[in-house]
Design brief:
Layout lengths: L2 E4 L2 E4 L13 E2 L3 E2 L6 E6 L6 H10 L3 E2 L5 H12 L10 E6 L12 E3 L23 E7 L3 E9 L10 E6 L12 H7 L27 H9 L16 H9 L10
Antiparallel strand pairs: 1-2, 3-5, 4-5, 5-11, 6-11, 7-8, 7-9, 9-10
Helix pairs in contact: 4-5
Length: about 260
C-alpha cells in the first residue's frame, strides 16, 4: 500500500498490510510533559507486543517511543503509566535498545535511544539490566507486579522474557486534536479524506493549538517561544521548533475547531 507523506513525517501503511492488528487496543488521553517538550500517550494492547512492532506503531501514530533523559521526565512517564491501570508485567515499552555485542562490556553500556542519541541518564532497577551481552535488549518500565519508576531490560520479542502489553509514545505536538482516543496520524491513514489539504492535520482541527486547549491564542505563541530550538512546538515536522512554526501559529491565530480552515 506504500506510504503516506505528511510534512516531516513518513507514515508507513504497513500497519494495514502485514502489520499486527492493534485496532482493538486503547490509547490513553494525551498528557503534556511539564517542560512542554512533548505530549505522551500510552497504548494498551490485548496481546503481547514486540518492541520492534511497538516502535513501528509509535512512528505510524506520528511520534516515537518515549525517551527519558532526566529524572523529571522519568517521573512524568511513570505517572502516565501508573495511571493507566496496567496489569502485572504489562511494561510499557520505552524507546531504547542495546544491540548484541561480541566484546565484554557492561550491560549498562551501548544503549541507544530511538532518536539516535546514546543513553546518559538511567534509572535501572537494582538488578537490571541482567543477561547476556550476546542478545539484543529493549527497554521497558519495570513491573513487579505494579509498574515501577525504574527500568528493566527485556528481550524484544514476547516469545521470551517478560510479556509486554503496552508502550509509551511521545509526540512533538498534541496528537489527538479531535479527542477520539486515537492519534490523528492513524485516523488520517485509515481515512485520508480527513486531511483534504494534505498538510498532515485533520481539517477540522487547528494545527497551531500547541497547548491542547482547542484555540490558537497567545498561550500557543508563548509555548513556541519557550521551546524554541527544541521539539515541543515542531508543527512542520522538520525536527526543531523554529520561526516557521511561530509563523504557523500566527497564521492560525484565533482558530478553534468550529472556525477551522
Amino acid at each position: 500500500m506504500g506510504v503516506m507523506a505528511i510534512p516531516g513525517i513518513l507514515i508507513s501503511l504497513s500497519f494495514m498490510v502485514g502489520f499486527p492488528d492493534f485496532s482493538s487496543g486503547t490509547w490513553t488521553v494525551p498528557e503534556q510533559a511539564p517542560d512542554g517538550s512533548c505530549w505522551v500517550m500510552l497504548y494498551k494492547a490485548d496481546d503481547p507486543i514486540k518492541w520492534t512492532d511497538a516502535s513501528s506503531l509509535a512512528v505510524n501514530a506520528g511520534g516515537k517511543l518515549s525517551i527519558s533523559d532526566s529524572s523529571s521526565m522519568n517521573a512524568f512517564l511513570f505517572g502516565v503509566a501508573s495511571g493507566a491501570d496496567l496489569q502485572p508485567c504489562d511494561g510499557p515499552w520505552m524507546g531504547a535498545q542495546r544491540n548484541a555485542t561480541a566484546t565484554t562490556t557492561p550491560l549498562t553500556d551501548n544503549w541507544q535511544w530511538v532518536d539516535g542519541t546514546s543513553m546518559v541518564y538511567s534509572a535501572w532497577t537494582n538488578d537490571q539490566p541482567n543477561g547476556s551481552q550476546w542478545l539484543t535488549w529493549s527497554l521497558r518500565l519495570d513491573a513487579n507486579p505494579d509498574v515501577l519508576e525504574t527500568w528493566a531490560a527485556t528481550w524484544a520479542s514476547p516469545d521470551a522474557g517478560k510479556l509486554v502489553y503496552s508502550l509509551l509514545a511521545s509526540f512533538a505536538t498534541p496528537p489527538d486534536c479531535d479527542a477520539n482516543g486515537v492519534p490523528d496520524a492513524l485516523d488520517i491513514a485509515e481515512t485520508p479524506e480527513l486531511d483534504g489539504d494534505l498538510d498532515g492535520f485533520i481539517d477540522s482541527c487547528c494545527p497551531g493549538d500547541l497547548t491542547g486547549d482547542s484555540v490558537v491564542n497567545v498561550d500557543d505563541i508563548l509555548h513556541v517561544l519557550s521551546v524554541f530550538n527544541g521539539q515541543g512546538g515542531d508543527l512542520d515536522g522538520n525536527g526543531v521548533t523554529d520561526v516557521d512554526d511561530l509563523l504557523a501559529v500566527l497564521g492560525n491565530y484565533g482558530c478553534t475547531p468550529s472556525l477551522s480552515r
